[in-house]
Fold:
Amino acid sequence: MTRQQQRHLHLGLCASALGVAALLAACAARPPAPHAPLAAARPGTLQACTDLATRAALPGTVYTSVTDVPAGTVTVGGVAMAAPAHCLVQGRMNERTSPVDNQRYAVGFEMRLPVAWNGRFFYQANGGLDGVVLPALGGIGGGGPRSSALQMGFAVISSDAGHAGSMGPRFGLDPQARLDYGYNAVAQLTPMAKNLISKAYGRGPDRSYFGGCSNGGRHAMVAAVRSAQQYDGILAGDPGFNLPKAAVAQLYGAQQYAAVASAKTPAGQPDLQSAFTPAELKLVADKVLARCDALDGLADGIVSNVRACRTRFDIQRDVPTCAAGTRDGMCLSAPQKNALANVFKGARNSAGQPLYSSFPFDAGVSGSNWREWKFASPPTRDAGAVAFIFSTPPLADRPQGLPFALGFDMDRDAPRIAATDGVFRESALSFMTPPDAANLSALRDRGGRMIVYHGTSDPVFSSDDTAAWYERVQAANGSDASAFARYFPVPGMNHCSGGPATDQFDMLRALVDWVEQGKAPASVTASARGAGTPVPNAEVPANWSPQRTRPLCPYPQVATYTGGDTERASSFACRPPSP
Ligand code: CA
Structure:
């Protein structure tokens, strides 16, 4: 029986047993039954490589390099990662000259096809503004050294999403490049990649997966809705699925920090880094821990019950207020408290209307990645993205950098992310965000599965936004979507990795087991990267075991201490949160 038939049967039985009036209330509220797992992928062997340029020829696609790569290592971000023998195909699609800005554009890509293939395809969605074809290894989530999708035998694609990184955010002056970045590169590359796979292995992929973090998590959330027919499993990490709104919120944050900055840059501008010293943010983290750490049963430097912490921690009450003119790291001034409270409450316009999302107070506020995103990024990454990519029309004539961030008007300018005009016919909110984000019915009904994870100390994309999204997905599925979509908060983790957290985990294997074996992930074990581990995370507290493990629990469950060794995941269970 197909899933659709199952639903019809369910509704039919309900309709016969109840009056029509009671039908919607009683039956529509029922959660969907879990779909049977999809057939497991079968392994295969690479049959062709160097002649793929001819064998896989497609109109609009140019293969610039096709080579056999022996087993060895591929270095990404300074970290050498093992790679099995594979075929490396590089190329570009849809090369063109923009009639708007006269620049050359193409969707650049590379694909790595392992000789020993596991029968699966993995779309590696990259972060930031894209623009770089990162090595197609396939991330599995979290930080540190780990296996990759390529090592696991997936055929992996990576792309620049339609523009060169050398353009910075200026690709946003071309309307088509905006759409390619938003969703169209994925739509173009997916069938091209599947064709390449079928020519390389003699058959197409049995199962297809899509994964990424940050903007890559956004791509994944978009693909879950727009490309549901093309993918069986979606892995979205720290997803910026409301990226234009989050970027506006970053500019709002810059304005808050500028108001309390104690120093100026050499150019005479407020130095955002001076708004809060590392000691002051460590103080905030300690006060959060004092209120919230033990809510999960153990004071261990990890706040697992984020929801309860919302009402327990009060920055105004719990952080000492400095006497006028005294900032010694043991207090915050009243204006500092207000600035931080505003940022965590979420960006607002002058009428008090929210422009993005709140953020949860958490121990990871002391992380270096938190500082980087909050203080360094707004005048650079966020200002450029809002000016050139997300505003319609682009705000290209304004002074850029910090002056742009500080001059951005939350009343008159913020609505530009929803605007269109004769040249830019889709707004940033349309091309960047998943249409009807909580409607995953297409993915659900074909037996697809989705795993989302998000650091609760992510400084740029809020885990509150992801929790709210997941609650909407729950509501759209009779209050329980866990049969096909699960969200795993990662306590303390900053943006995609780092912070005082167990930030090393393998979500991809969990996803494959769920899709193909029907093993729903009741929890995912994460480990810390303390001193002495292969790629240490300096922010793992010294009083943790360097390889502390914890279960990551599906929202709204919380990793609750049940007794035993406090450094081991086995001493915790995923439980409904205490209020
Ligand atoms: Ca705790």
The chain has 17 helices and 17 strands. Residues 530 and 538 are 7 Å apart (CA to CA).
